[in-house]
Write a structure and sequence with these properties.
Helix content of chain B: under 10%
Oligomer: heterodimer
Largest sheet of chain A: 6 strands, mixed
Number of strands of chain A: 11
Distance between the termini of chain B: 37 Å
Shape of chain A: globular
Strand content of chain B: over 45%
Number of helices of chain B: 0
Radius of gyration of chain A: 13 Å
Largest sheet of chain B: 7 strands, mixed
Number of helices of chain A: 0
Largest interface: A-B, 21 and 22 residues
Structural class of chain B: mainly beta
Radius of gyration of chain B: 13 Å
Order of helices and strands of chain A: EEEEEEEEEEE
Strand content of chain A: over 45%
């Protein structure tokens, strides 16, 4: 079955700097890769997603890149703000069926 | 966007009792619902996939007789934790998808925190 690895587990950045979180997946058939932001005790919130027919997608300060050959995908947050502090999860699935989540990255943005 | 609710938001029960958690899609019909468990400072682990009118598909290592899932309608799925023990204490989250018509995005419920004493 699918296995998703995520790095780093924690990431601290200064406000205004960029943050990058990387994930790798094992099943080459996976074709849907969402990213979620989860605040303590809350539900995961979809912040951006990408499908395998696209190499990059951007939404304001957030971008995701996908390298199908290497089975890597990454989340890029630019101009980080303290309110970006949260736990971020990547996930992978086939045809948006069941999601297999990465282990999570705790992002702290210091003012 | 599509809204998914869960009830209760938190529950405390004694060891050996059963607890039922409801997951509802409020403004759309959910072809599929998923149940996840999340232990503190860990990721979401898929427990089972539930389709309306059929038996749930459980992930490896999840006891189907302990975690009973009923998906009786296109807007309601329930998870019953039977004979709960302290190690079942966790954050249980459901999600629902509209299927192809909705782009298959999963919409998450707010979660239910279960504490077993």
């Amino acid at each position: 079955g699918e296995n998703v690895e995520q790095h780093p587990s924690t990431l601290s950045v200064q406000e205004g700097d960029s943050a990058v979180i990387k994930c790798t997946y094992s099943d080459s058939a996976s074709n849907y890769f969402p990213w979620y932001k989860q605040e303590l005790g809350k539900r995961p919130q979809l912040i951006i997603d990408i499908r395998s027919n696209v190499g990059e997608k951007k939404d304001q300060r957030i971008a995701v890149t996908l390298n199908k050959t290497a089975k890597h995908f990454s989340l890029h947050i630019t101009e980080t703000q303290p309110e970006d502090s949260a736990v971020y999860f990547c996930a992978a699935s086939l045809n948006t069926d069941k999601l297999i989540f990465g282990t999570g990255t705790r992002l702290q943005v210091f003012p | 966007g599509a809204v998914v609710s869960q009830h209760p938001s938190w529950v405390i029960c004694k060891s050996g009792t059963s607890v039922k958690i409801e997951c509802r899609s409020l403004d759309f019909q959910a072809t599929t619902m998923f149940w996840y468990r999340q232990f503190p400072k860990q990721s979401l682990m898929l427990m089972a996939t539930s389709n309306e009118g059929s038996k749930a598909t459980y992930e490896q290592g999840v006891e189907k007789d302990k975690f009973l899932i009923n998906h009786a309608s296109l807007t309601l799925s329930t998870l019953t934790v039977t004979s709960a023990h302290p190690e079942d204490s966790s954050f249980y989250i459901c999600s629902a998808t509209q299927g192809l018509a909705g782009g298959n995005e999963q919409f998450f419920g707010p979660g239910t925190r279960l504490t077993v004493l």
